[in-house]
Amino acid sequence: QIGVSPWHWWADVPPKRRDALFLSPDAAVDDAPSVRYRGIFLNDEYPALTNWIAAKYGYVAPREWPPMPQGVANYGRDFYAKIFELLLRMKANFLWPAMWNNSFYEDDPENARLADEYGIVVGNSHQEPMLRAQKEWDRRYLETLGHWDWRKHRETLEKFWEDGVRRTAEFDSVVTIGLRGADDTELAPDEPLSNRERLEKIVERQREIIARATGKESHETPQLWCLYKETQEFYEEGMRVPDDVTLLWSDDNWGNQRRLPTPEEGRRNGGAGIYYHFDYHGGPRSYQWTNTIPTAKIWDQMSLARDYGADRVWIVNVGHLKGYEYPISFFLEYAWAPERYTHENLADFSRAWASRTFGEKLAEEAAFLIETRARYNGRKKPELLDGDAWSQANYGEAERVVAEWDALAARAESFHASVGESARDASFQLIKFPTIASAVVANIYAAAGRNALYARQGRAAANGEAETVRSLFAEYERLKASWNEELAGGKWAHFTDQTILGYDNWFDPEKDGIDHLGLRELNPLDEPRMGVAVEGSVDAWISRTGESDLHAIAAPPLPAMDPFSDQNRWIEIFNRGRGSFEYRLEVSDPWIRVSRFAGAVSDQERVFVSVDWKRARTGTSVGFVTVHGAGDSCTVPVSAFNPEEGEKSRARGFVETDFYLAIDAAHFDRNVSENGRGWIVVPGPGKADFALRASAEPHPPALTPNSAGGDAAPRAEYRAWFFHAGIARIDLHLTPSLNFIPGRAITIGVSVDSGKPHTIVVVPEDYRVSNENEDWGKSVVENGRIVSAETTIETEGEHLITVWMLSPGVCLERIIVDMGGLRPSAFGPPESPRQ
What we know:
18 helices, 30% helix, eight-stranded parallel β-sheet, single chain, six-stranded mixed β-sheet
């Protein structure tokens, strides 16, 4: 309240200077927080955090006992004091410490005492039971006994556990019980049934050890069982732990809740909690570079956790900490008082956080930049990008993505220039660097996509795109150097050691690079030679004839045009050789307009084609643009659909164009709730600016839509106008939500007019998250799911599309009706015009 940010040290946020401080005589007392244990997990901390630790605090001195090898970064009291203060200032009280090559208790014995002094409760990760780090085992026994294995060396392992509980008995701890294999693997991958039975015995023994080591009844020591990956399947198959143990459910590592408590589970004394992820090291692809989780996504999933009673422990994997300042703040503030934030006022948090960080005058812009960057990066995480991430030919998608990033980067640069000198370091690390670096990465992959496309089409300009990629990579390296050498006088050097460029599987590349892009260099023809590419096609026309054979050959057709969207389509005239050539255009009909009729090409030139609707005939017209150049000619078919004036004026709602209809789900005509349940409009947790999310009511009865559009289920209705009748496919674009209600599939319904609704199973009841599940892998890679229903548009004219809410928690982003004209793209076409 006096103006000291929790991030005053970790993000160099300057304290607000005040001439005087006033203390109100009226005490303000907060009630207990909503979530009892609220904290972070420092994980996937190598290379960035660990290299920074080694540079700033050095290495732990080697010793014989407890064994300490050389080269262990000193995650000691000086470091953790900074972490504890950060947590305390954010009203957090729980920590899973760094563990890849470290032991919280043995690297520095003062760590535990200091945590207790700060009021921070320490536990251990899902893979490290009984308050023992895996590295403590490895340092003692790896060379002689190998990895821990309860079957082979039970007595040694049990004594190891007892020593761990005994050394922390005087401090507040939450003990993780259960057992997974070493290095975050299954207990024994080839023995699922035996593993479950073995784990039940292990838990029983661990409880006995806890009672013996603490001198108290076992239930008096807080414990949790993390139902992570295959361990959740043990629970689903019937394994149980004592009633006082907290069931810590995990998301799918990508921010989607796998399972939430039933009413019966909610009545357990130990309650339930959530292990969540802002960062993940694993398949199908690691994402560890920067924040890709919008606040709306965190709210969406964690509000479900709260609604369904998972409120004993909230712990979030924050990777190397820096880069996640903003989402950590929301996660912990929401855990303290979730009633403060609903889907209607999430922007209040953004503005308040930005105001506390950069001041009231800059708050609006800072909030926009931070939230928008997270959403852009979340559409498809940077580690998942490649040259095919966005369509180069359809809907201007790749160009639109790059334009969005470039505009955001320009605003970030302008914002950074506007902050005062004392806030420059905070602005650089929270706004400027992550925004501009993200924009550079997006541009690299867009240029790589153009390089591949141009090489396929034989464009000499392919070489220029390869050079663009190299130039952008050099720019990214310069940005990293600025971070390491200039930011806060080099205070945060090494936090750019986390690689981002070079992924081709889930392993981190050793260093940033562009070799994985496979850039192509062409050897241009000796003489200029014409090629023609058109919007809507990756194929291009190229001269395949001798110079004496000068007849016109057709190129791929341009996508159709209509007066509702009034599109500008493009034709690109490109050179396949060296030198340059002149070109000229001819149009077959006076209704066809071009942006220029003649010019010269050395690399390539884009010409726009549009329609003079006053001169276009009623109905569908087909004409041609013929391009002459370099001794050859090419003809591009052009089509326009111009309805009669009466039909144009009667068209209401979203209008079908180019044989498809695209609707953003939040743009409904009517939203009908039933019995207090229905679709709610939320800021976009995925790809859209806004979305419809099904309200959450714990374990409601399954809903069924009436075939005549009755009152059986909540629904959103959309008026639409079709110029064509026939078979259509309705695609519903959803976020990658999972079947978090046990024993129940996740479903949604869609209907046209009064026709029988199609009930679509989005996620089956028995759905399992695993790297072997290709559907799940695709859903998280694409950050969404598309489910479809086939229907018939019986007549031209006005129709009503209805989307029925059948399951809680489902999040709908877009509705696309394909009448045969939908073209491939990552995000789908722009929204259709609406009258």
